[in-house]
């Protein structure tokens, strides 16, 4: 094979693949440029999840007419001058690749005016083609428009995720920098709708309240730790507030969002023995260290760093979090167990207008009619005995003992009742006092996609302001349930297996809601309530598992009991 020099446009597109991976990568690079230009206000606008348009406007220093043409050339930067500068980087950008890479895979337009200039200038670059420059009148600052991303490399478009996923990635980038630069005001508009905003008042907890909700944000514990030239600031969750994955562990080094397995390990070590295995904390931790002691020139995306003394940073991070957790965690009084009022009894909810209807017993409610499995063995008639740990119901059958998980059993009962009703017209009840739900912008988008389905299932949910919704009615099967709890169940993270229901959206939503509103483990039930739950479970078509596949009961046969007591030899 003959070796040859690649054409400049091909080399640029290869280089762009390292920097511009997706629309969120473009937003990241442009926001970093705006912050390096001392902007106090940054506005991001996106259409079609950034594929059609990404526009980032700032009120920063702007560029002169001499610098503007250089800005779109590769390896042109105002941040460094020599190799030694790579070890004292105090800006977010420094490689001089971002604008050139973006210009090679999109239609790029830059409008800018320096603070002291009387006129601004516009530069247009079309897929790396020669730029055109003209004078325009604009306020000081810079606006960068990126249109038709990947129009000349369509294969890249095939690797993008759904528009919802790409929009969420963009929002995550903006929130990251809004937290890192909390004194800068940010606005994010997606599809001509305000998706995120921050006031720029320096309050990180306020920003997180918009993203997490006020209740969770109020629980966060402050971290403020300093030793010699290393300082750690941030907010962390108490042991009782966790997630099922690591996605809410956010780390920043000198205001730069980073991904570092060593730092993440330090966080998890600090929480060791304080949270359950398989659960992860919520962390926003900002590390401030001398630039000479950290290398940010590890990867073109600048998301990885290396420390001169990693062990010291690890120890400081672990110590700071552990100390803050001990200082911030308060002993809470043990609450009195709640009294369960099951939706399938005859109790009238004070918020309900109509009485819940009894389960109809028409011939149309066969397993085939409601889509329930026919092969699962039914349970025999059970005689109630008692309850253990306010969690498990003990019952006797003709062939031994049964231990029933009251939460999983109630999930199954609610799920099958809902499915039976969904085959005809789901009875709905108006609420005397409609509930209001305020969500993060990401949650609001998820809910909006599901509102038509939920309304078809007997809910009545209507928009009621920015990221706020009013719950006016619930299906009668959820009589007495808090409407906010039921609706939030459809958008919150879920920790159980949903694979059996993955392709059935309605059933998946119903199963999620049933899990949230079902009687909880540790919840005290009266003997009559326990007996009612047993009877309902006996009548289910699939009584032995909850909708997510977890067992509702354990059977201890008479034979097993006799062997345990040595009546039939050892096991």
Describe the structure.
By secondary structure, this protein is of the alpha+beta class. It folds into three domains: 8-200, Histidine kinase-like ATPase, C-terminal domain (Heat Shock Protein 90), CATH 3.30.565; 211-328, Ribosomal Protein S5, domain 2; 363-557, formyl-coa transferase, domain 3, CATH 3.30.1540. Helices cover 32% and strands 23% of the residues. It has 17 helices and 24 strands. It has an eight-stranded mixed sheet with strand order 5-4-3-6-2-1-7-8, with helices on one face. Strands 9-10-15-12-13 form a five-stranded mixed sheet. Strands 18-19-20-24 form a four-stranded antiparallel sheet. The longest helix has 19 residues, at 310-328. The chain is elongated. Mean pLDDT is 82; it is low at 330-375.
SSE inventory with pairings:
Elements: H1 8-19, H2 23-36, E1 41-47, E2 53-58, H3 67-71, H4 98-105, E3 107-113, E4 120-126, E5 132-136, E6 141-147, H5 154-157, H6 163-180, E7 185-190, E8 193-197, H7 204-212, H8 214-219, E9 221-227, E10 230-236, E11 242-243, E12 249-253, E13 256-258, H9 261-270, E14 280-281, E15 283-289, E16 294-295, E17 306-307, H10 310-328, H11 367-370, E18 383-388, E19 392-397, E20 400-405, H12 406-422, E21 428-438, H13 441-456, E22 460-463, E23 468-475, H14 483-488, H15 505-517, H16 527-538, E24 553-557, H17 558-564
Parallel strand pairs: 1-7, 12-15
Antiparallel strand pairs: 1-2, 2-6, 3-4, 3-6, 4-5, 7-8, 9-10, 10-15, 11-14, 12-13, 16-17, 18-19, 19-20, 20-24, 21-23, 22-23
Helix pairs in contact: 1-4, 2-6, 9-10, 12-15, 12-16
